[in-house]
Amino acid sequence: MNIVHIVPTAGWAGSEKIAFSFAIHQAFNHKVAVVVKTGPGFSARFYRDKLPANVNLIVINPSLKTQQEINRFVKASLEFVPDIIHAHLSLGCRIAKSMKSPDNVIIGHMHIRFFALQFKEMDAVVAVSPWQLDDVPAWYQGKKRLVCNFISNNWQKTVVDLFRFRKRFYIEKSDYIIGTVSRLHIEKGIDTLIKAFIKSDLKNAKLVIVGDGPDAEKLRVMASGQDNIIFTGFLDDAAQFMAAFDLYVSTSRADSFGLSVLEAISQDVPVLASATYGSKDIFGDSAQLFEIDDCRALAEKLKDARNQKLRNNVFIDAFDEKSSNAELISFYKEILEEKFSIPTENCPLVA
């Protein structure tokens, strides 16, 4: 198959990691292209270094301003005629719709939830968490399939690496580290985490906030005067540093599926998470969840987690990279066979 992943977000978070992982696996047996957009801190080299040489990387030129210019550029840059156009997030969906033809299939990936403007013209949609399947409206005529998010890298960091992390951010060996990795945007609820941490008044504790985003300055102002709250800024592949945390906290207001939560669990770091749909799918009915924006409840759970040595009760093997990649290829085959009545028995499922 000829497959194009369009993920032009000028960033590097859960959605981008998942899209790139699919592309890397598919490139073993199929022709694959990935469309990205550069931005501050995210150069063409940044993305190129994360892909094998046989993936056609298309970098949208920042000088292109209109949707029509971007659409024409992407089409002209492809090295093959695509069978599958897999769109990620808003701009990706807009580009994919401009490329729709009788000879291909366009698929939307629901990294957040079903948005009619993004997905109504798609031949199919991919859900990342079970609740999203029920969220797809009855009027939608395309196909849908659950392909769970997964851990693409189980980082194994040495004691020296973690020592360097602590030293870099002036964290003492005796400090209890509460950490989060997040885009600093209002939907991620980092303001709730800061308030709860201050309210908890934990001794010898540091709150480490990894990430950047549009609300970074507001959050820094909120935390001003608190020398035990540390902003690291963006760290490439931040999951590798999670093993330095004693506790991971997700305060998202609307996560479809918390990939960073899975990354923390994979490092055996205990987790507290707001009760979003995605977190409920991961944890079920667990005391590790707290109500969204409930600062008081989170402050109490921070204290309890330290005193009681919280343990995760999640079967991490259920979120398997190989299985998810095989499920997606199977979905591609099913759609192509239905649309074109062409058997694809010889199409390999996994690398």
* Span of the ends, CA to CA: 13 Å
CATH superfamily (homologous) name of the largest domain: Glycogen Phosphorylase B
Average pLDDT works out at 90
Q: Which strands sit side by side, in order, in the main sheet? A: 3-2-1-4-5-6-7
Rg for CA atoms? 21 Å
CATH topology of the largest domain: Rossmann fold
* Beta strands, count: 13
Q: Could you state the order of secondary-structure elements as H and E?
A: EHEHEHEHEHEHEHEHEHEEHEHEHH
CATH class descriptor of the largest domain: Alpha Beta
Which CATH architecture of the largest domain would you pick?
3-Layer(aba) Sandwich
Helix percentage range: 25-40%
Structural class determined from secondary elements: alpha/beta
Low-pLDDT segments, ≥5 res: none
**Overall 3D geometry?**
globular
How many structural domains? 2
**How would a crystallographer describe the biggest sheet?**
7 strands, parallel
The number of helical elements comes to: 13
Instruction: Give the amount of beta strand, in percent.
Output: 15-25%
